[in-house]
C-alpha cells in the first residue's frame, strides 16, 4: 500500500481549530510534493495547501493566513493546522503525495465539519 492516510477531522464550531495529519507507509519526506485538497458536497475538489520536498509551502487564498502546513520527520507526517475555521471550510480533506512528476497517490479523506 502506498496511499497516504489522513486523520484528525471532526466537528468544530466556527472560529475553532483542527489539526489534520497525513502519514504514509513510505517516507513521506521523499515525495516531491505533499498536498492538501478538499471537496465540499456538490463541489469540485480544490487545492488547499502543499509543501515540497525542500520545505517550500504554497497556499490557496482560502487558506492563507489561517492554515499552516508543517512536517515532522520523526513522525513521518505532514500536518495541516487549520485555525479560525468557517462554516464554508466544511468538506472532506484529502492528502496526496506526488513523486517523479506523475506518481500521485491519494488518501481516503477525513471529514471536517464546522457548525454552529
Describe this structure in words.
It is a single chain. The protein is mostly beta strands. It contains no helices and eleven strands. It has strands at residues 5-7, 10-12, 18-23, 33-39, 46-52, 57-59, 67-72, 77-82, 91-99, 103-106, 110-114. Strands 2, 4, 5, 6, 9, 10 and 11 form a seven-stranded mixed β-sheet that branches. A four-stranded antiparallel β-sheet has the order 1-3-8-7, with no helix packed on it. The N and C termini lie far apart (38 Å).
Descriptors:
116 residues; seven-stranded mixed sheet; four-stranded antiparallel sheet; 0% helix; 51% strand; globular
Which secondary structure elements does this structure contain, and how are they paired or packed?
Layout: E1 5-7, E2 10-12, E3 18-23, E4 33-39, E5 46-52, E6 57-59, E7 67-72, E8 77-82, E9 91-99, E10 103-106, E11 110-114
Brief account:
The chain is built from no helices and eleven strands. The chain has strands at residues 5-7, 10-12, 18-23, 33-39, 46-52, 57-59, 67-72, 77-82, 91-99, 103-106, 110-114.
Q: Can you give the mean pLDDT?
A: 96
Rg from alpha-carbon coordinates: 13 Å
Share of helical residues = under 10%
Total strands: the figure is 11
Distance between the termini: 38 Å
Largest sheet: 7 strands, mixed
Shape: globular
- What is the tally of helical segments? 0
The amount of beta strand, in percent, is over 45%
Helix-strand pattern = EEEEEEEEEEE
Protein structure class = mainly beta
Poorly predicted sequence stretches spanning 5 or more consecutive residues: none
Amino acid at each position: 500500500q502506498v496511499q497516504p492516510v489522513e486523520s484528525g477531522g471532526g466537528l468544530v464550531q466556527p472560529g475553532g481549530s483542527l489539526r489534520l495529519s497525513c502519514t504514509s507507509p513510505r517516507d513521506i519526506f521523499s515525495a516531491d510534493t505533499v498536498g492538501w485538497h478538499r471537496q465540499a458536497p456538490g463541489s469540485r475538489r480544490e487545492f488547499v495547501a502543499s509543501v515540497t520536498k525542500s520545505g517550500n509551502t504554497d497556499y490557496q487564498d482560502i487558506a492563507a493566513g489561517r492554515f499552516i502546513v508543517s512536517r515532522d520527520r520523526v513522525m513521518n507526517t505532514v500536518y495541516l493546522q487549520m485555525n479560525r475555521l468557517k462554516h464554508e471550510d466544511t468538506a472532506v480533506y484529502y492528502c496526496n503525495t506526488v513523486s517523479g512528476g506523475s506518481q500521485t497517490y491519494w488518501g481516503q479523506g477525513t471529514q471536517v465539519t464546522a457548525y454552529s
